[in-house]
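The aim of this short unit is practical: by the end, you should be able to scan a pair of folded records and say something sensible about each. We start with the first protein, listed as its amino acid sequence and then its structure tokens.
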Amino acid sequence: MGMISEFKDFISKGNAMDLAVGVIIGAAFGAIVNSLVSDVITPALLNPALKAAQVENLAELKTEGGILYGKFLAAVISFLVIAFVIFIMVKAINSMKKKEEPAAPAAPAGPSQEELLTQIRDLLKK
């Protein structure tokens, strides 16, 4: 029974639950970003740009020796587009958050250490 109770404690702790929620939300966010890139940005922006450059299928570009540099270029472009989309989304989410109210002014500072020592010295003289 000791192992089962330890397992219950592990599962019920906030860390495991927070991790599970983070993974699930991360997967859902990844699906949103992938859909935005593949269904909106790629057809609207990248495909016309590739057609203008007379490159119909970037992934099929290769050298005479068979090195598929087109796949590498496609992966780099995909990474840059996804990174930019995530940047824009995070920036938008951060701008939607409430602006933090400025902290209340701190209480007026008391006398400095030098002033306290001077007061103590004067009291000792009396």
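Turning to the second protein, read its sequence before its tokens, just as you did above.
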Amino acid sequence: MSEPALSHRQPDRQTAIRQARAALLGPGEVRPTDALPALGLEPWIARSWQRCLADGHRPEDRLDFEPISAQQQRQVQDDNHALIEAARPVLAQLSRAIAGTRYFSLLTNAQGVVVDVQGPVEARSPAATIARVGIDLSERAVGTTAIGAALTELQPVWLHQGEHFFQDNQVYSCAGAPVLGPDGVCVGMLDLTGVEVPERPELRHLVARAARHIEDALTLQRPWQLLLRLNWPGTPMTDGVANESDGLLCLDGEGRVLATNAAARQMLPRPLLPPGAVLHASDLFALPWGLLFDHAQREAPPMDLPLWSGLRLQTLARLRHASAPAPSPSTLPSPQRGLKDLETALIRQAVDAARGNVAEAAQRLGISRATVYRKLALRPKQPADSGR
């Protein structure tokens, strides 16, 4: 087979970026963006460039990296204390992973303002001015960057030199990932940036992994009484050995859900609740929720955890303190109760969760309505007399 023509070869990265910039940012009529991915430009970059243009910016405009006021900085530090504390150990680990690469890490709040910096920053370099607490690195302030993109797209990103909108930013290469709080709302982002460094797209995986660790730390900061580590059956799960794929779900002493990490939110379908209602363990799990406290008090090995969907997870439940308040006796089955009583309690809880709708409860449990009536000694409702 003959060598393909030179014009048909995939362009190198720098050439592809220059072609993409000419196509979208060059003078004259803006060209369609549907062909840009063929040039190696990811669609989210094109969307960011277009937003910058719509705001009246041009790539040659000069940037002024000035920090927010001292008073604003103090307020930002206070407002993001929990995020900063959760991230500190992770940033220290990142510094080890990127040692020798001339990349450093930035942590920002949800608005893109830097709240912490770690790693080797060459203070004498003019480009290092971005590595200061209080600098606003949002898309609105400095155009297309990994920071603004991660906060807007809510996904891990990689950005290399000319993929930044402004020419002043083309010395940077950076990877970014959003950090979501225990309620699933973005609270900030983590960024790895290098100045005039070789391209390291693998840093996107590293920064995404580090952001998940920060999210787990934020989840565990909540004042929980019971922690459920969740995973699918067959996944090894032991005390003292964290699995990166584990879901984390925190409950208070009454079984209310206080916090979840991203993995738990993906494993557990969120039921429809009335406005203002608090999510409860009984809304998620098809068993009396007090059994989870019993499991934790006995420090038992992982147990199967049935969901209302019919799927099953496994969980390792652990109390925060030995003196953590136990659930009320009405919801915590006695160890002496037999399987028959446990089955009845499960069915009764399903009927209660369905607000008395026996058909709905039976469907959730995968049994017949007749079985529900028999187990609970209920009398089926008789249809109204149509002759009256």
